[in-house]
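Do me a favour: review this protein, sequence plus structure tokens, and tell me how the chain folds. Record follows.
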Amino acid sequence: MNTLLNEPLASYTSLRVGGAAEELVVVETYDNMTSALVGSKTQPWILGFGCNVLVSDNGLPGRTIIWRGGRIEVKDRELTAEAGVWWDDVVKRAIAAELWGLELMSEIPSSVGGAVFGNIAAYGQQVSDTLAWLDVFNLNTARVERYAKSGFEFSYRRSSLQNNPHLIILRAGFTLSPTPLHELQYDAALAVAHEFGLDQSSLEQRRKAIIETRRRAGSLYHPDEPKSEHTAGSFFKNPIVSTEQARELAKFDETGKTLERIESQSRIHGGDSHRSSAAHVLLAAGFSRGQTWGHIRLHPQHVLKLEALPGATAAEVYEVVQTIVHAVKAKLDIELIPEVRFLGNF
């Protein structure tokens, strides 16, 4: 466990912007994490790999805890992982044990804690599908408590843990399967599998299809890769819209899919045919790939990614987000909600 004072946080996040932590505690083990929580005098800020956050240029007061590391265990069909583990290490461990249920979420950049907190999902699979239980540290009681998944609510890109900041995720248990739990139905991944002749009845080959699909979408990120682009992945959630809006937004699809197929993909990706692609929303509102505001731009490959260019600040990122949200509301009457969490005072 390492404690640093007034430590700049930019290098601990994928956007590479933001101010300093008044007190930063970096931990690698479960015991260090519980010690850091017990020793915190105020509600601590919790970061894993900083892939889905925007830290204010004003920094974070009090204690910030970064947990990177931990244990993964597999027994029969149950996989247990500590919250500081890199998510893709969990996916790889499940595949090595020939267990299905996590493979479509290969290479999503997150810690295990962040994955559960945000109920990450990809290609028709979400964390809550196989989550069985959680161990959390209750800041109100200073005790570790175990809850079944039923103790929380999960929905698209959300868990009720987001409304309970006194519960800090420590460990998660997943019940996996020796046979496939989900059919791969997402067009882009199916096209890659067909192109490379990958067998979707093989866990390893299905993972290869997913990784290549993510690579082509510019969606691969590794925190130890110095040349990684400075983004937080897809910045906005796919919104629920009316039937008429969904059909209008479908016209901005650039892949040539039929309306029926677009609605089918929306159900797979977001659980509802009315949950339209946020990318379509931005394009419909007049935004474009590569559009730039000072040191911030929309990624040339992925319009939902805000990329922080050299010299960018968190305030600039935040200002562009507000510009997009307000324009979408004014032009389309759609509430666009950021998926990225804002930490600190903006």
Observations:
- The mean pLDDT is 94.
- DSSP finds nine helices and 18 strands in the chain.
- The longest strand covers residues 167-175.
